[in-house]
Design a protein that fits this description.
ArsR-like_HTH (chains A, B), disordered N terminus, HTH_ArsR_DNA-bd_dom (chains A, B), Arc Repressor Mutant, subunit A, three-stranded antiparallel beta sheet, about 110 residues, homodimer, Helix-turn-helix transcriptional regulator (chains A, B)
Chain lengths: ~110, ~110
C-alpha cells in the first residue's frame, strides 16, 4: 500500500468502547489538554493551528493518543488534517465529565 | 536515621499546590481508581484491606502516586498505615471534579 494511503487510515474507537482510564490518561498532559480546550470553543481546526509549542512529530503523537482515547476525530482533506472534538460521543458515555475536567483546568490554568 | 523513622516521613502536598494533570494521571489506573472509590464510601482504611489484587510493593507504589497527587492522606499508627481520601481539599480546589470522575467510572465499571 502506498505511504499516502496508509497515512489516511486513521483509527477511531467506537463510542461504545470508550475506556475512562484512557480518557483520563489522554487529558493528563498539558499539550493534549490545551488541544482539547481549544477544540471545546473552536469546532474544527487544521492541525498546524493549535496554540502549542511542540515539534510536529510530538504533536502527531499527542493527536494519536487523543484519537485512540476517543476524544478527537480527525479527517484528511487534501494535504491537511482537520480535527474535531467528539463531545457528543463523550457526553453520551460520560455525561458532563469533559466539561467538569475542563472547568477544573480553567481554575488551575486560566 | 533508622529505617523505621525514614519510613514514617510521608510527604503530602499542600492543597494549594494541587496539579490537575497529576490528579488525572493518578486516577488513570484501575488499581488506583479502585482505592479512591473504596475510600469515597469508607472514610479510613488500613493499607492491607483494599479490594485490589496486586503485590505489596506495587500497592506501595500506587499509594505513593495517589499521595503525591494529593488524593489521599496516610498516617502511621503502630505498625499499620491508615489511608483517608482528601475529599475536602480536592473539592476546595476543583469543586465536584472527583465525584464527576467517580460517577463516570461507576458507569464504566459498576
Amino acid at each position: 500500500m502506498p505511504r499516502s494511503q496508509r497515512r489516511a487510515a486513521l483509527v477511531h474507537p467506537d463510542a461504545r468502547d470508550y475506556d475512562l482510564l484512557d480518557v483520563l490518561h489522554a487529558l493528563a498532559d498539558r499539550t493534549r489538554m490545551t488541544i482539547v480546550r481549544t477544540l471545546r470553543t473552536d469546532p474544527e481546526r487544521a492541525c498546524g493551528t493549535f496554540p502549542v509549542d511542540v515539534a510536529p512529530s510530538t504533536l502527531t503523537h499527542h493527536f494519536r493518543v487523543l484519537r485512540e482515547a476517543g476524544l478527537i476525530h480527525q479527517r484528511e482533506e487534501g494535504n491537511r488534517r482537520w480535527t474535531t472534538l467528539r463531545l457528543a460521543d463523550l457526553d453520551g458515555r460520560f455525561p458532563g465529565l469533559l466539561d467538569s475536567i475542563l472547568a477544573a483546568d480553567k481554575r488551575a490554568a486560566p
